[in-house]
Write a structure and sequence with these properties.
- By secondary structure, this protein is α/β, with parallel strands linked by helices.
- It has one domain: TIM Barrel.
- The protein has helices at 23-36, 50-59, 80-94, 113-125, 139-147, 166-174, 194-203, 207-216, 230-237, 246-253, and strands at residues 3-6, 9-12, 16-17, 40-42, 68-73, 99-104, 129-135, 154-158, 178-182, 221-223.
- The strands form two sheets. An eight-stranded parallel β-sheet has the order 3-4-5-6-7-8-9-10. Strands 1-2 form a two-stranded antiparallel ribbon.
- Helix 1 packs parallel to helix 2 and helix 3 (80-94) crosses helix 4.
- The protein starts with a strand and ends in a 21-residue tail after the last helix.
- It binds NADP nicotinamide-adenine-dinucleotide phosphate (NAP).
Length: 274
């Protein structure tokens, strides 16, 4: 396993995503993932599966400090009056007194960035989280985030071979902030891609594994693929025994010309145009 080291945090570059997993499934898959060697789990209050994730972690017998656990505050809870109760509820459900990373899940046009960043930093001071970060923040909003003085370690955004995130990635590198790639296999849309397939065959891998490898080979990038199937957990983790050549990376880099975004809800911010 490769680890990302950033501002005092050491984070496994490959984690487990849990979006759209019902509570029971999240419990079973998190338990199976921990058995398979995953030590980085991503959930969110809005996923309504923090309880299952927390139960699996508690029952795993693995020391809490050996697992990097992320949760997120949803956009409707960013107001000062709602923020801390949301975090406290997450911790209760997760059955832990801290998370490793607390993220602002989505920005909210009705709540000033300074207001929610103030609450995020306060949650860190209270010990509710070791590290802080944001998600779904384009560069214009990141400017506002950094203006608050917040020491964020990541921006969790959609990133896979089919989307162009050049502007955002460059910004994050310039500011020493990691990028956590969500929907890292484009919710399955990398399957069947001929370029990825061709490269995969050479290594005895598949399109999913090549996509994940392409991500984690980049400086400061982590990926959190989700699966509801225990047998796929090992496949998605099995990406550390091969290395893409510079030529293969360049071939995959061409795919971003499609600029395909798979997560784009009506409340999304104005994304960076590249
Ligand atoms: N911050 C945000 O706003 C945000 C937004 C989206 C996602 N996320 C996070 O990122 C995580 C991952 O993103 P995602 O869930 O959107 O999509 P994803 O990980 O790109 O794709 C998940 C889909 O791929 C399939 N899959 C997984 N492994 C596979 C394999 N080895 N072979 C074939 N198919 C495979 C899964 O189906 P099966 O279940 O059938 O395996 C599922 O349908 C989420 O779970 C969540 O934790 C965050």
């Amino acid at each position: 396993m490769k680890h990302i080291t950033i501002k005092g945090a050491t984070i496994p570059a490959l984690g487990l995503g849990t979006f759209q997993l019902p509570d029971d499934t999240a419990r079973e898959i998190t338990a199976a993932a921990l058995s398979a060697g995953y030590r980085h789990i991503d959930t969110a209050q809005i996923y309504q599966n923090e309880s299952g994730v927390g139960t699996a972690i508690k029952n795993s017998g693995i020391a809490r400090d050996q697992i990097f656990l992320t949760t997120k505050v949803f956009r409707e809870s960013l107001y000062t009056k709602d923020f801390m109760p949301s975090v406290e509820e997450s911790l209760r459900k997760l059955k832990t007194n801290y998370v490793d990373l607390l993220l602002i899940h989505w920005p909210n046009r009705n709540v000033p960035v300074a207001e929610y960043m103030d609450q995020l930093m306060e949650a860190q001071r209270k010990g509710y989280t070791k590290h802080i970060g944001v998600s779904n923040h384009p560069t214009a909003l990141l400017d506002e985030v950094l203006a608050t003085g917040a020491d964020i370690i990541t921006n969790q955004v959609e990133y896979h071979p089919l989307i162009n995130q050049t502007k955002l990635y460059t910004y994050l590198r310039e500011h020493g902030i990691s990028l956590t790639a969500y929907s890292p296999i484009a919710q399955g849309q990398v399957l069947g891609n001929e370029t990825l397939k061709g490269i995969a065959e050479k290594y005895g891998k598949n399109e999913v594994q090549v996509s994940l490898r392409w991500l984690i080979q980049q400086e400061g990038v982590m990926a959190i693929p989700r699966t509801s199937k225990a047998e796929r957990l090992k496949d998605n983790l099995n990406i550390f025994d091969f290395e893409l050549t510079a030529e293969e990376v360049a071939q995959i880099d061409q795919l971003k010309q499609q600029n395909k975004r798979v997560v784009n809800p009506p409340f999304a911010p104005d994304w960076d145009i590249v």
